[in-house]
Design goal:
Blueprint lengths: L1 H6 L5 E3 L5 E3 L8 H19 L7
Antiparallel strand pairs: 1-2
Length: about 55
């Protein structure tokens, strides 16, 4: 999922003993449009891995 998001321009940080946690670390000055874009990229990345879309922007 993190690799798919990265290919679309979203950098995620992984954590946990098996990198099972993905963290989004936006800047303090993020605007609503950027958050919506991030959610869309994250939605597509998750769908590419699990095969279904589960997030709603």
């Amino acid at each position: 999922m993190c690799e798919a998001a990265y290919r679309s321009g979203l950098l995620l940080e992984t954590a946990g003993p098996h990198d099972e946690v993905a963290k989004v670390l936006p800047p303090r000055t993020v605007v609503d449009e950027q958050v919506e874009q991030c959610i869309g990229i994250l939605d597509e990345a998750v769908a590419s891995v699990v095969g279904v879309r589960t997030l709603v922007a």
